[in-house]
Design a protein that fits this description.
Layout: H1 3-10, H2 14-22, E1 29-30, E2 36-37, H3 40-54, H4 59-67, H5 72-103
Antiparallel strand pairs: 1-2
Amino acid sequence: MKIQELERRTGLERPSIRFYEKEGLLTPVRLENGYREYSEEDVELLKKIKLLRQLGLSVEKIRALQQGSEDLSAAIARQASFHSSQIDEHRRCRAVCEAIRDDGAEFS
């Protein structure tokens, strides 16, 4: 399939697909005319990459997962822990904002 179909099937835009290609996460077949031909496996791979990126994993971490030098369960557990700490921090920030608002504080 051509890149337009890949964009439609994955919800990723062309620059993102090309970026993952440049980073070595995706290697489509090259036709004799130089065009890229994407497979169903490429669609599934990009869907996985998209999900992992949405969860906040770096390209480097995804590369390590893809190469088998990183364990998915361990990486996801670390990411869940990170998100939990972020939630706690956001709750503290919200509490401070509400306290400032409720006190009617002024900048001066």
